[in-house]
Amino acid sequence: MGRPREVSEEERAELIRKGYRPIEVWVPDFTSEVYRLRAALQAKASAEADRNAGIIEFTDESPADDWEKP
User: Fold this and answer.
1) How far from the centroid of its chain's Cα atoms is residue 3's Cα?
2) What is the C-alpha separation between 66 and 70, in angstroms, rounded?
3) What do you get for the CA distance between the two ends of the chain, in Å?
4) 10-residue block means of pLDDT along the chain (70 residues)?
5) In sequence order, what are the residues at sequence separation of 6 or more whose Cβ sits closer than 8 angstroms to the Cβ of residue 22?
6) DSSP 3-state assignment of 64?
7) Calpha distance 26→19 (Å, rounded)
8) Dist. CA 63–CA 32, nearest whole Å
9) Tell me, what's the pLDDT at 34?
10) What is d(CA 47, CA 55) in angstroms, rounded to the nearest whole number?
11) Are the beta carbons of 45 and 53 closer than 8 angstroms?
12) pTM of the model as a whole
């Protein structure tokens, strides 16, 4: 994909005139081993928290049973 081409000064001025403003967005590097380790730890912690809270048992109950309740 690569980096998009830079806009010229004229294009930049035109976009600003139209009400746009430039921004810069930083995102995680998904290819980083550090990112992957942290994501795995967070996923494991989240799953463990769900097990401890009984969420799995709650969501596994049959929703069809709820239709029969008054």
Assistant:
1) 22
2) 9
3) 57
4) 79 95 91 95 90 69 65
5) 12, 15
6) helix
7) 23
8) 41
9) 96
10) 10
11) no
12) 0.44
